[in-house]
Amino acid sequence: MDGIQVDIQHLKKGEVSLGTSIMAVTFRDGVILGADSRTSTGAYIANRVTDKLTRVQDNIWCCRSGSAADTQAVADIVQYHLDLYKAQFGEPSTKTAASIFQTLCYENKDNLSAGIIVAGFDKKNKGEVYSIPLGGSLHKQKYAIAGSGSTFIYGYCDKNFKEDMSKEETVNFIKHSLSQAIKWDGSSGGVIRMVILTEAGVERLIFYPEEYENL
Amino acid sequence: MQPIQHNFNPYSDNGGTILGIAGKDFAVLAGDTRQTVDYSINSRYESKVFDVGDNILMSANGFAADGDALVKKFKNSLKWYHFNHTSSISSISELSEQNGQHKMSLKSAARNIQHLLYGKRFFPYYVHTIIAGLDEEGKGSVFSFDPVGSYEREQCRAGGAGASLMMPFLDNQVNFNNQYEPDSHGQVKKKLEYLSLDEVLQLVRDAFTSVTERHISVGDGLEILIVTKDGVRKEFFPLKKD
Amino acid sequence: MSGLSFDNYQRNQYLAAHTNIKFQTTSTGTTIVGVKFNNGVIIAADTRSTQGPIVADKNCEKLHRIAPKIWCAGAGTAADTEAVTQLISSNLELQSLYTKREPRVVSSLQMLKQHLFKYQGHVGAYLIVAGVDPTGAHLFSVQAHGSTDVGYYQSLGSGSLAAMAVLESEWKQDLTKEEAIKLAADAIEAGIWNDLGSGSNVDVCVMEIGQDAQLLRNYRTPNVREQKQRSYKFARGTTGVLKTEIIEEHEIDVVA
């Protein structure tokens, strides 16, 4: 078994990937996660209604980008750790969740292609967003964008993001941002999904192309 | 990042199978009509066996574009052959057809095709070529070529994707290989004899339905061209489409 | 040591790179689909198995039983779909006996994806997993690398594009059982006719809530071979007998 040279490029051939547009934004009442819904294998759209917004706790969710298999596996492991944590010490914080994500992504950086945004709400810290890009570093941010489609909306988001927006403003900001990301990125598409995390709990939204395409 | 080399591949494999059998006073050249690339079907009816004139049947199976190009080139060559060998005097007895036109013999056609193929020795036509017709004595005749022009006259030859499945069946049923006279204890080979056109047609149909069962790039339709002293005739039979 | 042995991995890599030796696996170059309906879920598959361009089996079974009411359709490497399905089936039955509960589809899905992820795509199983359990009817797909998808309809294999074309144009919400079976079978047929890796017959498995799962083997047979033109019966003695040898029979006493 020892000394086997594993060629990553080869291993990942034909893998299902989330060529994605994802983001998470803090606002007045908490945080909102947003994502497109396209999963592709090469030129083929393997799933046009994917849910890339994944629950790891009732109040802590993540946006997945990169390899579908890797990010699902990582999210499953994080969920397991958080459940265990909760049983022993009580409700985990968003930062704790992000830290577990980071550990997994950093320690296994050679074998993973996973770009994850962690977002959560708790009474003490309100809405929080943590970004974990490819190498496994951890960045606390007011808002975060990631995935192949995000490159097209850095300018837009930088100009239009405001702190302490209302829920409606934030939903609109995400809708406009992802609309542009989807428009210019061929690997993103389908519907726009959102998850709103506030004191009130979880709210899910879905926007169809007819609505977001010509805003 | 490491550099990636991109290559243009001028060839593709369009599948399909062809089969030529020579009889006593006839010859047949048959081919399925499915054209494929990888796991996709380009067409369910695309002829690849042609009546090129002068009672000669021709098919070039493998890479369809090369096959078409080769047939086209040979047809053109045949045209020029007629230009150069047509006499204004129509009564000379050596001229085997009316209007002073001299028919190209099958063996001349074969030699000509050899030159067409070898002319592209270092960028070959990616095809297995078979021609069929009647020889100078009026006997059925089949010639088969490799991609660069090596050729041979044969009684029977299968070409293309399903050739390896078909050929052993033909060796056994046309040339009676591995068949012995009953009661000779494997000492006396079964005597060779010409098959009738009906028998040949039955063998061809069974050969193609069988290969269709076991080869994914063969199917959809079977087109059989039959050449006799009276000219060329076509027959078509549907094959399975899965 | 447990799990699969990778001892020959490097040797095979060397052989693949430096010789003409090729390791061919029987691939179920396949069309498989799954469709949910108002009271359950169904899966379907074609029955062609190939080795390169050659049809290895004209009527193979691609529908596997994981539990009595959880079935899956497999595409990819035939041996892997079979092995992984049996492994998970076995573990699921033990778990079911231990917990005294009906096995759940999500359990089999989680076990499958964790197994496949562990082997990083080397176990080439692409599966559509479906079934009914105490929580209702479920339909999932799993890819060799370990990713999973959820949906009302799924298709996988080399004929998945042809099948998906039918599903995307014909599918509607709240299908009846009969409508779902027809849709799934039509999708498989699209694969049979238009994908060279798929062919022969359609197998269907219906899993309805509150009822036993029923496997409809060869639900459609649109590719029956026509009668041959000739008989290929040889006259007795056509094959020469080269050598005859008679071996004496010996009685062997078996001591109890």
Automatic annotation (TrEMBL), chain A:
The EC number on file is 3.4.25.1
Q: Which UniProt keywords apply?
A: Cytoplasm, Hydrolase, Nucleus, Protease, Proteasome, Threonine protease, Zymogen
Q: Molecular function terms in GO for this entry?
A: threonine-type endopeptidase activity
Q: Where are the transmembrane segments?
A: none
Quote the cellular component terms of the Gene Ontology held in the record.
Answer: cytoplasm; nucleus; proteasome core complex, beta-subunit complex
The principal location of this protein is nucleus
InterPro entries for the chain? Ntn_hydrolases_N, Pept_T1A_subB, Proteasome_bsu_CS, Proteasome_sua/b, Proteasome_suB-type
GO BP term (any one): proteasomal ubiquitin-independent protein catabolic process
Q: Which reaction does it catalyse?
A: Cleavage of peptide bonds with very broad specificity
Per UniProt, subcellular location reads as: Nucleus
**Name of the top EC class for this enzyme:** hydrolase
Q: Which residues form the active site?
A: 20
Q: Which PANTHER family match?
A: ATP-DEPENDENT PROTEASE SUBUNIT HSLV, METALLOPROTEASE TLDD
Instruction: Summarize subunit and interaction data from the UniProt record for this chain.
Output: The 26S proteasome consists of a 20S proteasome core and two 19S regulatory subunits. The 20S proteasome core is composed of 28 subunits that are arranged in four stacked rings, resulting in a barrel-shaped structure. The two end rings are each formed by seven alpha subunits, and the two central rings are each formed by seven beta subunits. The catalytic chamber with the active sites is on the inside of the barrel.
Q: What is this protein called?
A: proteasome endopeptidase complex
Classification of source organism: Eukaryota, Fungi, Dikarya, Ascomycota, Saccharomycotina
UniProtKB/TrEMBL annotation, chain B:
Transmembrane regions listed in the UniProt entry: none
CDD domains hit by this protein: proteasome_beta_type_1 (cd03757)
Biological process (GO) annotations held by this record are: proteasomal ubiquitin-independent protein catabolic process; proteasome-mediated ubiquitin-dependent protein catabolic process
Is Chloroplast given among the entry's keywords? Answer: no
According to its UniProt record, where is this protein located? Nucleus
- Classification via InterPro entries: Ntn_hydrolases_N, Proteasome_bsu_CS, Proteasome_sua/b, Proteasome_suB-type
Q: Does the keyword Transcription apply?
A: no
Q: How does it assemble?
A: The 26S proteasome consists of a 20S proteasome core and two 19S regulatory subunits. The 20S proteasome core is composed of 28 subunits that are arranged in four stacked rings, resulting in a barrel-shaped structure. The two end rings are each formed by seven alpha subunits, and the two central rings are each formed by seven beta subunits. The catalytic chamber with the active sites is on the inside of the barrel.
Kindly provide the name given to this protein in its UniProt entry. Proteasome subunit beta type-6
Please give the organism: Hanseniaspora osmophila
Q: What is the lineage of its organism?
A: Eukaryota, Fungi, Dikarya, Ascomycota, Saccharomycotina
From TrEMBL, chain C:
The Enzyme Commission number assigned here is: 3.4.25.1
Keyword Hydrolase attributed: yes
Subcellular locations according to the entry: Nucleus
Tagged with keyword Nucleus = yes
Which class of enzymes does this protein belong to?
hydrolase
Catalysed reactions, as listed in the record: Cleavage of peptide bonds with very broad specificity
Entry's Pfam families?
Pr_beta_C, Proteasome
- CDD domains from the entry? proteasome_beta_type_7
The Swiss-Prot or TrEMBL record annotates one GO molecular function as: threonine-type endopeptidase activity
Q: Ranges for the Proteasome beta subunit C-terminal domain?
A: 222-252
> Where would one find the signal peptide in this protein?
none
Q: Which UniProt keywords apply?
A: Cytoplasm, Hydrolase, Nucleus, Protease, Proteasome, Threonine protease
One biological-process term from Gene Ontology? proteasomal ubiquitin-independent protein catabolic process
GO cellular component, as recorded: cytoplasm; nucleus; proteasome core complex, beta-subunit complex
Under the heading SUPFAM superfamilies, the entry gives: N-terminal nucleophile aminohydrolases (Ntn hydrolases)
User: Active-site residues?
Assistant: 30 (nucleophile)
Q: Report the PANTHER family cross-referenced here.
A: METALLOPROTEASE TLDD (PTHR32194), PROTEASOME SUBUNIT BETA TYPE-7 (PTHR32194:SF4)
Subunit record text: The 26S proteasome consists of a 20S proteasome core and two 19S regulatory subunits. The 20S proteasome core is composed of 28 subunits that are arranged in four stacked rings, resulting in a barrel-shaped structure. The two end rings are each formed by seven alpha subunits, and the two central rings are each formed by seven beta subunits. The catalytic chamber with the active sites is on the inside of the barrel.
Its name, as the record gives it, is proteasome endopeptidase complex
